[in-house]
């Protein structure tokens, strides 16, 4: 009996070490939250989708099931063992997130099928040193990023909700960054973006829009615009 207990103890110890090692290398087990009782969602997309994730400790991980918690700015993934974990952002260089197919089928024209998220933009207001932001365009002259956030708010009381509960409110903010790391919050409207460029680049921007028939309210046209602007 003692031998059986000793073997069982050794097995449990090895299992615990393996789990701790797995957590250190990849991330921490997904937490159980009370979000189910809150209206809205803390996630960028409610459905699971696929991502390619570049890491410093394990190379490129392809076709990983993910959900992006934009309230806590964490990537929740399913690892090789089939466990849900939050990735340790210290080891993540970037991630390319696929949009769920149902959103692409029913979404607005020009939606990007894949979104690049990266760290390293903590000089932008509201962005921490380990926060992931969506990088739409990146170049020597201009970079355009988007910050997704799901804010947890408590609506004011009214006649329809005498005891209102909390709810998540989706937010997205675009930031234009020039080569000197000057940051400006912008709207994705053609005239607004053109006016946000350096004065000497505004005519170039107008010409790019006109020559390529671009609508800067479209994500795919934003990519084309800044690619050409950074080449100019």
How would you explain this protein's 3D organization?
This protein is of the alpha+beta class. It is 27% helix and 33% strand. The protein contains 5 helices and 11 strands. The protein has helices spanning 2-26, 101-106, 190-196, 202-212, 219-231, and strands at 27-29, 49-55, 59-69, 74-78, 84-87, 92-98, 114-118, 133-138, 142-153, 167-178, 183-186. It has an 11-stranded antiparallel sheet with strand order 1-5-4-3-2-6-7-8-9-10-11. A hairpin with a 3-residue loop joins strand 2 (49-55) and strand 3. The termini are far apart. The relative contact order is 0.12. Mean pLDDT is 85; it is low at 1-25.
Task: Give the tags.
eleven-stranded antiparallel β-sheet; 232 residues; alpha+beta; 5 helices; 33% strand; single chain
Rg calc = 22 Å
Q: What's the story with the biggest beta sheet?
A: 11 strands, antiparallel
**Secondary-structure element order, N to C:** HEEEEEEHEEEEEHHH
Beta-strand content estimate: 25-35%
Count of DSSP helices? Answer: 5
Distance between the termini: 78 Å
Q: Which regions contain 5 or more consecutive residues with pLDDT less than 50?
A: 1-25
What level of helicity do the residues show?
25-40%
Indicate the topology.
Layout: H1 2-26, E1 27-29, E2 49-55, E3 59-69, E4 74-78, E5 84-87, E6 92-98, H2 101-106, E7 114-118, E8 133-138, E9 142-153, E10 167-178, E11 183-186, H3 190-196, H4 202-212, H5 219-231
Antiparallel strand pairs: 1-5, 2-3, 2-6, 3-4, 4-5, 6-7, 7-8, 8-9, 9-10, 10-11
Helix pairs in contact: 3-4
